[in-house]
Amino acid sequence: MESEITIRPESPREFSAVYDLVRVAFLSAKISAGDEQDYVSYLRQSANYIPELSLVAYCGDQLVGHLMMSKSFIRPDRVCVPRLEPFRLLLLAPLAVELRHRKQGIGAQLVQNAFQRAAQLGWSAVAVVGDPAYYERMGFVPAARYGIYAAGDRQMYEPYLLVKELTPGVLDSVSGTIDL
Ligand SMILES: CC(C)(COP(=O)(O)OP(=O)(O)OC[C@H]1O[C@@H](n2cnc3c(N)ncnc32)[C@H](O)[C@@H]1OP(=O)(O)O)[C@@H](O)C(=O)NCCC(=O)NCCS
């Protein structure tokens, strides 16, 4: 019988195991830059790192998944008055589940668990760049629906840039660009 999945914030003693998990997981990703494990290390050193929202999933004593949500913001379009302040939200990246433990709902559990923790910490929205076929199951919708786009190559990211409100309606008055 499969053990229950435990999800909790990562701790420094796990950083090396997380690095290996993310590296190997992305070898089989549909789309990968090949350096997601280094991105995790980079984020931990940055001001955008949120230790409480960098989660590990365990099946028994085996590390089987990892997710990070870090600080980001939507910069309002110049024409968008009266909202001139950047809108703070979370960026979900990366998400990785160990190959042999896939299709058991661990990715979805990690995302839902992170949503709950994020809401408790006062965050109201999350963005992700990912496969809509996967993330729309978890309530993400195309960011373009709100007039939210990636800074830089808007067109390239448009099909993959998705957002999820943790506070219903919070994005209704938000539009602009996210630096990815
Ligand atoms: C994507 C990933 C985290 C999913 O983990 P998981 O624990 O298997 O996810 P879940 O069990 O919650 O969901 C599995 C379902 O999502 C589907 N799915 C997985 N990746 C998908 C993708 N990129 N696009 C569409 N569907 C996808 C699976 O086929 C499965 O479908 P089913 O329920 O109809 O069988 C895992 O496959 C992984 O680590 N992939 C490599 C890293 C990666 O691509 N991360 C970014 C995701 S955009």
Quick description:
This protein is an alpha+beta fold.
Explained architecture:
- Helix content is 24%, strand content 30%.
- With 180 residues, the protein is α+β, with helices and mostly antiparallel strands.
- Strands 1, 2, 3, 4, 5, 6, 7, 8 and 9 form a 9-stranded mixed β-sheet that branches.
- Helix 1 (15-25) runs antiparallel to helix 2 (36-45).
- The longest helix has 15 residues, at 106-120.
- The radius of gyration is 16 Å and the shape is globular.
- Bound molecules: coenzyme A (COA).
- Residues 25-26, 28-30, 94-97, 102-108, 130-131, 133-134 line the site of coenzyme A.
- The site of coenzyme A has 20 residues, from strand 4, helix 3 and helix 4.
Secondary structure: elements and pairs:
Layout (H helix, E strand, L loop, with lengths): L4 E5 L5 H11 L10 H10 L8 E6 L2 E14 L11 E11 L8 H15 L4 E5 L2 H4 L5 E2 L5 E3 L3 H4 L3 E5 L10 E3 L2
Parallel strand pairs: 4-5, 7-9
Antiparallel strand pairs: 1-2, 2-3, 3-4, 3-9, 5-8, 6-8
Helix pairs in contact: 1-2
The structure holds coenzyme A.
Q: So what's the overall shape?
A: globular
In DSSP terms, counting alpha (H) and pi (I) runs of 4 or more, how many helices?
Answer: 5
Number of strands: 9
CATH class, named Alpha Beta
Instruction: Give the helices and strands as they follow along the chain.
Output: EHHEEEHEHEEHEE
Strand content: 25-35%
Reported CATH architecture: 3-Layer(aba) Sandwich
Q: Spans with pLDDT under 50 lasting ≥5 residues? A: none
Q: Give Rg in angstroms.
A: 16 Å
Chain-averaged pLDDT: 94
Helicity level: 10-25%
**CATH homologous superfamily classification:** Gcn5-related N-acetyltransferase (GNAT)
Say what the CATH topology is.
Answer: Aminopeptidase
Ligands bound to this protein structure: coenzyme A
What number of structural domains do the residues give?
Answer: 1
Structural class: alpha+beta
Distance between the termini: 41 Å
